[in-house]
Write a structure and sequence with these properties.
InterPro entries: Class_I_gatase-like (IPR029062), GATASE (IPR017926). It is a single chain. This protein has about 280 residues and is α/β, with parallel strands linked by helices. The chain has a single domain, classed as 3-Layer(aba) Sandwich (Rossmann fold). Helix content is about 35%, strand content about 25%. A hairpin with a 4-residue loop joins β8 and β9.
Length: about 280
């Protein structure tokens, strides 16, 4: 890599709390691939936020905050949660000042739920049963004009894996905070339950999804074919649904398209902003 180019520093916030996962590998693979394709002097550092209470300062240019297990409500008031939101507040304060390029943050699943909890954008609660699989995500009117979705269809397909959810958007609070709901869960006419909020632009520089835009077919397949996960899916959804999940992994217009679109579009947007400042 050439060293005469301006360095772009990315902080990856690991919220998996030491639990084995595919998400971190996928995030780092996307960053590495993006760096190579665009021939950038781009570096990254991983911070173990929950397990080791590691939180960066504001010296990075871009932040990607991962998914993770557990209840997004119960961590409120813990050391790591407080430190995490001290960082988010500091980044927001920086962005509102005139000091240098703005800092862009992407929030995935658990991180998205934490942000919704903090901003009061909807109800955070436990699902009746976990949502898991390659599922359609529907774009809202605001989402039609969102750059990170450029190149996707409506609906597009993404990996959904959550026991907790954010539902019942508080439209007044969204408006008050300058946030916009970009995507919602698939409609289920036979189920009288609210549709989850699947993507929100929190402000000009902060954006997040309740699904996993980083997920790739390799990681999803590795997860699905474990005996435990296969049995869980079959028990919950049936053998045919399990087979359909595996087949969807091979469709280039489903999660493969989402993986190569959303986070790269976010990085495009963040780096363009960084270079223009």
């Amino acid at each position: 890599m050439t060293t005469d180019k301006q360095e772009i520093k990315v902080a990856v916030l690991d919220l998996y709390n030491g639990v084995a996962n595919q998400g971190m590998r996928c995030i780092l693979d996307i960053i590495a691939r993006y760096r190579e394709v665009n021939d950038l002097n781009l570096t990254y550092k991983v911070f173990d936020v929950r397990q080791k209470e590691e939180v960066p300062g504001t010296e990075f240019d871009i932040y990607i905050s991962s998914g993770g297990p557990g209840d997004p409500l119960e961590s409120e008031g813990t050391v790591w949660d407080d430190k995490y939101f001290e960082l988010i507040d500091a980044l927001e304060a920086h962005n509102q000042s005139a000091a240098g390029p703005k800092k862009h943050v992407f929030f995935i699943c658990h991180s998205f739920q934490l942000m919704c909890r903090r901003m009061g954008l909807g109800a955070v609660n436990l699902r009746r049963s976990p949502s898991f699989g390659v599922l359609p995500v529907h774009v809202t009117e605001h989402g039609l004009f969102e750059q990170i979705f450029e190149g996707l269809t409506d609906p597009f397909f993404a990996v959904d894996s959550r026991s907790w959810q954010v539902v019942n958007a508080d439209n007044e609070q969204l408006k008050a905070k300058g946030a916009a709901l970009l995507a919602i869960e698939k409609e289920r006419p036979h189920v009288d339950l609210p549709r989850a909020l699947m993507a929100i632009r929190f402000n000009e520089c902060f954006i997040g999804t309740q699904f996993h835009p980083e997920a790739d077919p390799f990681g999803m397949r590795a997860y699905l074919i474990t005996d435990e996960k296969k049995q869980e899916v079959v028990d919950e959804h049936g053998e045919q649904k399990y087979i359909e999940m595996l087949e969807r992994l091979e469709d280039p217009d489903m999660i493969m398209l989402t993986e190569i679109t959303i986070i790269p579009n976010f990085l495009d947007q963040a780096i363009l902003s960084f270079q223009e400042a």
